[in-house]
Amino acid sequence: LYGPPGCGKTLLARAVATESKANFISIKGPELLSKWVGESEKAIREVFRKARMASPCIIFFDEFDSIAPSRGRHTSDSGVTEKVLSQLLTELDGLESKKDIVVIAATNRPDILDPALIRPGRIDRILLVPAPDEMSRKAILKIFTEDMPLTNNLKIEALNDLIGDGFSGADIETWCRESAMIALRENIRARKISLEHFKEAIADIHPTITPDMKK
């Protein structure tokens, strides 16, 4: 899974695990890297060992580019990254006969992944998780405001008009939460959140998705 940050790659992986009723192991790439010789490769082996014990299982690698960049990119890490990549390739090749373990990875930088990973039998499905469009932003707003006590005349369309293409799902969640906090700071006994609270909050929320990320 690749795409801009905050657009639901991790959420999508968790949803797959829930719907398939599989066990779920979530790993952030940098967590596997160690300064001690051999520890990073050992961590990779341990992840796959646990997955085999807990099968059916989904292994989810977040920030995948940190452990699987193209070989030759890192010249100052004593070859740790290349050793980790080699161990990862070995483990992926060993899964061909294990149909009940699935590997899902997420990255914001698919362009720097090692080509050896992206081939049939290893990671052979590449899916874009795009920035939300207008309809998606409305749907996300409905989810995050569903349990919020909005003023009666406040419509989702009015909120959607305040945000643009650069807002991710995570940005919208932060905006809704900050709007509620502003209402409480204004009056600790506040019962409603108004459009003015959302307008005040939007001034401090900067969209994380840049035009370059969409390319």
Give your account of this protein's structure.
- It is a single chain.
- The protein is mainly alpha-helical and 215 residues long.
- It has two domains: 9-112, P-loop containing nucleotide triphosphate hydrolases (Rossmann fold, 3-Layer(aba) Sandwich), CATH 3.40.50.300; 134-214, Helicase, Ruva Protein, domain 3.
- Helices cover 41% and strands 8% of the residues.
- The chain is built from eight helices and three strands.
- It has helices at 9-20, 39-53, 80-93, 134-145, 156-160, 169-186, 195-202, 211-214, and strands spanning 23-28, 57-62, 101-105.
- A three-stranded parallel β-sheet has the order 1-2-3, sandwiched between helices.
- β2, α3 and β3 (101-105) form a beta-alpha-beta unit.
- It is elongated, with a radius of gyration of 21 Å.
- The mean pLDDT is 87.
Domains counted in the coordinates: how many?
2
Tally of contiguous helical segments: 8
Largest sheet: 3 strands, parallel
Instruction: Give the radius of gyration.
Output: 21 Å
The CATH class of the largest domain is Alpha Beta
Question: Which residues form runs of ≥5 with pLDDT under 50?
Answer: none
Q: On the 0-100 scale, what is the average pLDDT?
A: 87
Gross morphology is: elongated
N-to-C SSE series?
HEHEHEHHHHH
Query: CATH superfamily of the largest domain, please?
Result: P-loop containing nucleotide triphosphate hydrolases
Class from helix and strand fractions: mainly alpha
Strand order of the largest sheet: 1-2-3
Q: Could you name the CATH topology of the largest domain?
A: Rossmann fold
What is the CATH architecture term of the largest domain?
A: 3-Layer(aba) Sandwich
State the total count of DSSP E strands. 3
Strand composition percent: 5-15%
The amount of helix comes to 40-55%
Keywords: ATP-binding, Coiled coil, Nucleotide-binding
Domain AAA+ ATPase: 1-133
InterPro entries: AAA+_ATPase, AAA_ATPase_domain, AAA_lid_3, ATPase_AAA_core, ATPase_AAA_CS, P-loop_NTPase
Protein name: AAA+ ATPase domain-containing protein
